[in-house]
Amino acid sequence: MIRELHEKLKSGTLTAVSLAESYLSRIDERDGEIGAFLSILGEDARKSARFVDEKIARGEEIGLLEGVPGAVKDNMCKVGTRTTAGSKILDGYVSPYDATVIERLSGAGAVILGKTNMDEFAMGSSTESSAYRQTKNPVDPERVPGGSSGGSAAAVADGMAVFALGSDTGGSIRQPASFCGIVGLKPTYGRVSRYGLIAMASSLDQIGPFTQTVEDAAIVFSEIYGYDPMDVTTAESDGKRFEDFLSGDICGLRIGVPKEYLSGGLDDRVRKTFDASVERFRSLGAEIREISLPHAKYALPVYYIIMPSEVSSNLARFDGVRYGMSVDDKTERFSESDTLLETYLDTRGYGFGDEVKRRVMLGTYALSAGYYDAYYKKAQDVRKLIRKDFADAFREVDLVFSPTAPEPAFRFGAKQDDPVGMYLSDIYTVTANLAGIPAISFPMGTVEEEGKRLPVGGQLMGKWFDEETMLRAADAFEKAGADERK
Amino acid sequence: MLTSEEVKHIALLARIGLTDSEVEKYRNELSGVLDFFHELGELDLSRESVGDGIPVKENDTREDRVAEFVEIGREDILNGVPVRKDGFIKVRSVF
Q1: Which domains does chain B have, with CATH numbers?
Q2: Residue A223 lies in a domain
Q3: What is this structure's pTM?
Q4: Which domain CATH number covers A97?
Q5: Which residue of A233, A357, A368 to mutate against B (max B Cβ within 10 Å)?
Q6: Nearest CA to CA, how far is A310 from chain B (Å)?
Q7: Is the bond leading into A222 cis (omega within 30 degrees of zero)?
Q8: Using CB atoms and an 8 Å cut-off, which of residues 346-365 of chain A contact chain B?
């Protein structure tokens, strides 16, 4: 899709301004119903689009992403705009600087239409924990779009943006991509700078794109990755343009299917779609092998110890003193005294939602005196074993294939009173974050529920810093699917 | 099952004000999640080698010096502060 738009812009059959206008009107028309955006940056978007048109008029070369309208999740700072991370506690906060990804998108000439809704501080699998609004799944408005990057996924799925950035700590790009029937890429940890991303769990967070096609994901990813002096965990850029690797040929590629993933809570219909997808890979010439990830069953408990521990530390900065809101003047009070402690208790008690409180407290507990060894230290040790499972698997196979989520999009409210049930939504996705490997979700089919065809995603996981093999396989799968429909 | 006192203690450490009904609610919910962690208890790590042999990026360190914010001004940063007075950030007394 991006390549076609690029050709049209270059040949003059389309202007960047008219392209931006058409997306802004689509938002205007649709977003009241869908609820994907928290803020719309119409003026900024028009300005960047005009800049691209002027460049074209001067006969200058333009890059692939130039003039292409996209959106970013509202936990990424863009100078002069509201950045709420979906939380009441950041109500009124205006970013004083650009996140590195925003700088890179702007540098690449992308047109940023607005900032998208999300679960509060990216904690959730349905976008229902946003303090601001509900986001509906464009496929079925009675269902959630997934989360936490539900706004970004819904914006792309509903044609309100060509691409959108999300952040993925335990599946927050891949699971909503699966629920909305689009592509979502979580790069290797260290690929994309987290500077200016409001931190959730720093050893797990990674930014990546949502798009309609695998090629588009490769194009956006190529523009945003690389070393950043402001994020010490970023790796040197290896100069790859990932869209150049999409040959469509996966003959001889070894794809592993972990036996541990195909039991337990996996929906039968998702399983069937998955089995058919395995066959499609096989018919494309890939060699399918059963593999074992012996510590897979510990991934979710490990994740739900490490992530909240990092959350409790990262979210300590929201204290009613430095930024966002302070409830010193609110009538709702949690303590009697009139000291700084009261500012903290009141601001955080009032400003944080349920799920955030739950996770901050869980993390505080896991890190507290007497429990540290039993929870946090043990979880870190098991995390190493999970990494080792993948290192061992990648000696035998090039990629690991699984469903993205155990079920299709669920209805609003279905899991809201059941935290552990909500957490199970991440069962296949958290391992990639724990191991730091790249993973992509792409549409692998649909299942029928109550008369609707609901999309389900397949997930490919690759070796550290080997996004290209994963993208090549997902692209080949997508192209084969398009051929089958012809 | 966590006790109410434990939940209150955690909430205070976490600097989160809770009402009494919230204490009860989180007592149930947090206990549910903690049960879910017990699976890890069955793993005996004393027999496993926990090194995974995968190279990790060495820590980068840099000289600790004051950097100028080029385009971000002092005022832009202070604008985010909820309560200001005479060029300072105003907070309540600690004691």
Answers
A1: 4-42 (1.10.20)
A2: yes
A3: 0.95
A4: 3.90.1300.10
A5: A357
A6: 13
A7: no
A8: 346, 348-350, 352, 357-358, 360-362, 364-365
Evaluate whether residue A149 is within a structural domain: yes
Q: CA of B7: which chain A residue's CA is closest?
A: A361
ipTM score here?
0.90
Q: Does any domain span residue A241?
A: yes
How many Å apart are CA B37 and CA A431, to the nearest integer? 16
DSSP one-letter code for B80? T
Q: From CA A105, how far away is CA A223, in angstroms rounded?
A: 7
> A354-367 vs B20-37: helix axis angle to the nearest 10?
60
pLDDT digits over B23-51, tens only?
999 999 999 888 888 888 888 777 666 66
Give φ, ψ of A453 to 5 degrees: -95, 110
Count of structural domains within chain A = 1
The answer to whether B21 contacts chain A (CB < 8 Å) is no
Catalytic residue among A48, A73, A152, A222: A73
* C-beta atoms of A340 and B94 within 8 A: yes
Chain A residue whose CA is closest to B40: A298
Look at residues A424, A334, A204, A230 and name the one whose alpha carbon lies nearest to residue B60.
Answer: A230
Catalytic residue among A172, A178, A309, A425: A172
A369 at B interface, C-beta within 8 A: no
pLDDT tens digits for range A315-362: 999 999 988 888 765 555 555 668 899 889 989 999 999 999 999 999
Range of the domain at A108: 2-245
As given in the structure block, the two tokens for residue A61 are 């070369």
Catalytic residue among A48, A129, A148, A309: A148
Q: Does the active-site annotation cover A326?
A: no
B37/A332 Cα distance (integer angstroms): 34
**Does A95 map to a domain?**
yes
pLDDT of residue A338: 80
